[in-house]
Amino acid sequence: MTVHVPSGFEARLKTHARDAGFDLAGIATLGTPDTVAHFNAWIAAGHHGEMGYMERHAELRRDARRPVEGMHSALVVALNYSGTQPAGPIARYARFTDYHRVMWDKLDAIRDWVRNEIGDVQGRSFVDSGPVLERDLARRAGLGWFGKNTLLINPKLGSFFFLGALFLDVPLAPDQPFVSDHCGTCTRCLDACPTQAFVAPHVLDARLCISYLTIELKGPHTPEQAAMVGNHLFGCDICQEVCPWNEKFSRPASEPAFALRPELATPASAEFATMGDLEFKRRFGDTPLVRAKRCGLARNAIAAQVASHSATAADGRS
Ligand code: B12
Ligand code: SF4
Fold first, then answer.
1. What does pLDDT average to over the chain?
2. Ligand with minimal distance to 55 CA
3. CA–CA distance, 199 with 203 (Å, rounded to integer)
4. Which positions are catalytic?
């Protein structure tokens, strides 16, 4: 059955996405990412470290039509998770219920609305989960530019938001890509990174990134890695915190599921060093922390303890 897309449908779709709670919405046509060469160079340099899935599924990431056959367009959305909270050992995005399910549910509901509106359309929701270069797609859909810290930045929202996409098998009129770059001569994020993880503007060597070292890297830390982690327990926001666009435009999240959990906002880091599996699952099983697993959190908590003892010892000597 051929589906007829009525005139003005794209505008209604984006309005519907914003009514569903998304802060930004745009439309892109699926195809070869504009930044595929950057992605290829990043993989070739080994910047993905032990994130084997980035390499394994590289072919799919090189063309957004490949992950799901027959897909044509994407509704790309952003959901603010609030950059206004104070810094802490757990990155801001992980201080409440896991965002994947929240966003999948919203995107699936939008797909059902599309079916209701225009007929038998196939769709697939992606949130961080699929072999898709989401920031490339978001820039194509007009949502923002690539900051030198690699985050997608929107001129009215900053960068503390999640990205998601609803792939659809109908041709939709795309938005204009976001072509301008508003970083200018600023280098605050590059200068602030405590581990010098940016090998150049826009290029992150994940192997040096605290987010990677506390979440994605499995197994024990080398002494050098433990020292780099410092008192970070899960993830890192430093390159976003210092960004003037966040200082100016971050705002509290309006998504009810993103209500702050005090035990994640001001965690007792040391308790993660000894917590058992059952307790970890009971207290944090529905949060992003499960990505690092209980043993990853224990490893990070020990690195934090060592960092704090070293700092105390250094103070004592001075
Ligand atoms: C792997 C991954 C990581 C890795 C590697 C990060 C990285 N920079 O690649 C690690 C574990 C380190 C990580 C950390 C974080 N991540 Co992450 N991560 C991803 C994931 C799964 C893939 C990213 C990817 O494709 N990397 C490949 C490299 C090559 O891409 P890139 O660095 O983004 O660079 C792109 C552009 O900058 C551009 N580019 C590259 N070089 C150049 C050069 C020039 C001159 C130009 C103009 C452009 C350009 O092309 C590249 C390809 O599109 C995405 C989800 C997804 N499926 O896309 C989430 C995602 C990027 N992460 C996200 C988040 C929130 C984070 C953290 C903030 C979490 C935290 N607080 O700890 C940090 C931020 C660290 C950082 N500065 O990136 C969000 C970002 C939202 C946003 N506003 O941009 C995403 C989109 C998840 C989501 N669905 O919301 N992440
Ligand atoms: S801190 Fe400066 S250079 Fe880095 S992303 Fe923000 S505006 Fe761009």
1. 95
2. 1
3. 6
4. 128
